[in-house]
Amino acid sequence: MVDDEEQREATIQKRILEITKLFQQATKKDDLDFILRRFNLKCIKNNKKRSPIGLKMAIKYKIIKMAIQEPDDIFDYDYFCKVNQSKEASVHTINP
After folding, report:
1. C-alpha atoms less than 13 angstroms from C-alpha of 74 in its C-beta half-sphere
2. Domain count, the chain
3. What is d(CA 62, CA 46) in angstroms, rounded to the nearest whole number?
């Protein structure tokens, strides 16, 4: 059981290092798409796991950053949009 846990942690760390290396070298949208495809990174959109390939570059950037920082979690696009809309609404009410 302990060996399985250690093996899992080693695999996660190796994956994080690979993603980080590619991410630091990424300069174009295609580079981000390559990372998303290679590591099969998904997001939650409309309460389903989806490929983020069709999303904007800024969102892809956030998904990859999350894969590095929180490797066991999945980026929730719906929640992200909801939070951003509420932030925009609060800015508009403060500064009409």
Report:
1. 15
2. 1
3. 18
Q: Which domain holds residue 70?
A: 2-94
Tens digits of residue pLDDT in 20-69: 999 999 999 999 999 999 999 999 999 999 999 999 999 999 999 999 99
Strand 48-50's sheet: what is its strand order? 48-50, 43-45, 75-76
Task: DSSP for 9-72, please give it.
Answer: HHHHHHHHHHHHHHHHH--SHHHHHHHHHHTT--EEETTEEE--TTS-HHHHHHHHHHHHH-TT
Going by C-alpha positions, the residue among 61, 16, 29 that lies closest to residue 43 is: 61
Angle subtended by helix axes 57-69 and 2-25, to nearest 10: 150
Q: How many CB atoms lie within 10 A of CB 77?
A: 19
Q: pTM here?
A: 0.85
